[in-house]
Amino acid sequence: MYVVREFLNGTKLLEIPIDFSYCNNNLEALLIFIQLFTKKDDIKDFVFKMEKQWRRDDDLSPKLTSVKRELVKQTDLYIQISCLSISIVCSIYLLNPLFMVLVNKFILHRNVSNTVALGLATPFNYEDNFLSYILLVIVEYRLAMIVAYELQCSQYFITISMDHLRVLFILIQDEFKEVIRLPNDANKEKRFKETIQRHSKLLELLWDLNGTFGYLFAINYIFLSSTICFCVISACTDGSLEDLKTLCISFLVIVNVFYCCRGGEYLANTASEVSTAIYDAPWYELPKKYRKDLMFIMSRSQRVAYVTSTSYIKISLKTFIRIMNMTWSFISLITTVYDTK
To answer: Hey, which end of the chain has fewer CB within 10 Å, N or C?
Structure first.
């Protein structure tokens, strides 16, 4: 309401960029919530399928167990640091006006009006009522943190799923190498069939990943450029140290998008490297019935299978570069239009 009212009163868009960015984030959060609600059964089924294919430490060699744990720890560390960074940056941004009001009123003994970080429209006057002001700050902080975590957690869903699926593809590579080197007996034929079936299940999970989380990334893809654009414009136009905190918000958004796109790139490369792992093993020494199956698997793996969003947007590093180019184009266009007026 505040942004609409200011815009109708003739306020230029560049004068309220951070407020417009917050409205943009609210709309994005609403669309993500709707998508998560409609896809909750698909997400549940995907998680259960992933659980069935997940490899326990007892089934792996010590070397592969170490590799699996290290990769999972890297993902967990990223999620912990990202959540902590979001909490710190958002708390500084949202609670800074309250801190300044408290310092001016109770330490410097100045008569200042109560201000909030976001221009929420309220049916009551909080500028002269300190209790109403504190309640508004609490509500504003809670709502903003819910929006922030909803936006980022939608990317965490995608990132964690891609990273865990990548771990399974790394493990299947070593499993193929091990099975190929086994002596020709009944146990080898059984292990061979189990490995092929497991690889087929992983390809199915890779395909399910597109339908389960594809639209979530598409929503982020559409809104990310405008969010980063207006945060950067806010910091650059105001130029004060206080407003440079918006750059921190932009930096967090960019890092999360980069990590998600990097996860998609790594997953596609790891899935295609199954053919390399088989080729490096002495597969040509196997009986003909094994060689035919392995040649089919190698042929299938060589076709790079990116996680796609709505069949058009690939979750890859090229997509990240495209997002950054689009963001820079938006910034240049908006600043040029308003500079000429």
So the answer is: C
